[in-house]
Design a protein that fits this description.
Layout: E1 2-5, H1 8-11, H2 24-27, H3 30-33, H4 36-41, H5 43-59, H6 64-75, E2 80-83, H7 89-92, E3 98-100, E4 103-110, E5 116-117, E6 136-140, H8 149-161, E7 164-168, H9 179-186, E8 190-194, E9 207-209, H10 213-228
Parallel strand pairs: 1-2, 1-7, 2-3, 7-8, 8-9
Antiparallel strand pairs: 4-5, 4-6
Helix pairs in contact: 6-10, 8-9
The structure holds ligand BV8 and zinc ion (ZN).
Length: 229
């Protein structure tokens, strides 16, 4: 069982999504802030944006959608979370394993040596440097940057061998992540989409549940549990 998730699963924790009307991108130009070019052009702006998002994510709580996945993973020990989200809420909800395709906003790394470096409490949202002299940047995958090949291969292997895939809270627009639910379908998995809005994947899904994940997933867990015991 694979739970493939996007920003929508964190919406009920108060973290605005990327493309909904009040989503992040509506306030900022996405290609500007979440890209190497944007960082090069105005590192302070980008670092302030990430610091604000880190703070928001740190204050947010996992919601019933995240928590239901923890229950599912107990019932089905071989199930995995593959997320596009960088907010760390899946892990905080007790989901395990969680594969973060686009990195994690609570980590930063060196532009030069790629070492992970702890945040500087005296200068949390400004420019900081690694011991090697390189500038520090958020440890996330920006637009135009490649995803970690090992995590991507693991993710494709998992969707190619799963029997059931939930695609939850994603507008299914960002590649190569958006390819995953299609791969699951191609190999014959049963694919359930959970999203109040239709997406480019909806027509292909075996089941498209048009409700918020915080409502759908806990109910589905109860049904699975009742059917098994
Ligand atoms: C790459 C980390 C190779 C940073 C992110 C043209 C065509 C196709 C592809 C491209 C193209 N031009 C460029 C590309 C490639 C590009 C891409 O796909 N662009 C898209 C926009 C067209 N992809 C890349 O650049 C990727 N890398 O291709 O590398 C390469 C290498 C070198 C040179 C060339 C190529 C890297 C992509 C990774 C970008 N980083 N995040 C950060 O977070 O700051 S992506 C970002 O978008 C987040 O990770 C986010 O998760 C992700 C996807 O968005 P969603 O999660 O789907 O969120 P969204 O707001 O869109 O949707 C929310 C959904 O939730 C909605 O449907 C809503 O209805 C629903 N919802 C709301 N409430 C609820 C809910 N659902 C359930 N319950 C609710 N309560
Ligand atoms: Zn360094």
């Amino acid at each position: 069982m694979v739970f493939f998730t996007g920003a929508g699963i964190s919406a009920e924790s108060g973290i605005s999504t990327f493309r909904d009307p009040d989503g992040y991108w509506s306030k900022y130009d996405p290609m500007k802030l979440a890209s190497p070019e944007g960082f090069k052009e105005d590192p302070e702006l980008v670092l302030r944006w990430y610091a604000a998002r880190r703070q928001l994510a740190g204050k947010a709580q996992p919601n019933p959608g995240h928590l239901a996945i923890t229950q599912f993973q107990k019932l089905f020990p071989h199930s995995v979370v593959i997320t596009q989200n960088v907010d760390g809420l899946h892990a905080r909800a007790g989901n395990e394993p969680v594969w973060e395709l686009h990195g994690n906003i609570h980590r930063q790394k060196c532009l030069k040596c790629a070492e992970e470096v702890a945040f500087n409490p005296d200068n949390p949202d400004g420019i900081n440097y690694c011991a090697c002299g390189g500038m520090l940047r958020p440890d996330v995958v920006w637009f135009g940057e490649s995803l970690s090949i090992s995590i991507l291969n693991q993710a494709f292997d998992a969707v190619k061998s799963c029997s059931l895939l939930f695609t939850i809270g994603t507008s299914t627009q960002v590649y190569p992540a958006a390819q995953l639910p299609f791969e699951a379908l191609n190999q014959g998995a049963f694919v359930i989409e959970v999203n109040p809005e239709p997406t480019p994947f909806s027509a292909k899904a075996d089941l498209s549940l048009r409700d918020p994940v915080g409502k759908v997933l806990p109910n589905l867990y109860e049904e699975f549990y009742a059917a098994l015991f």
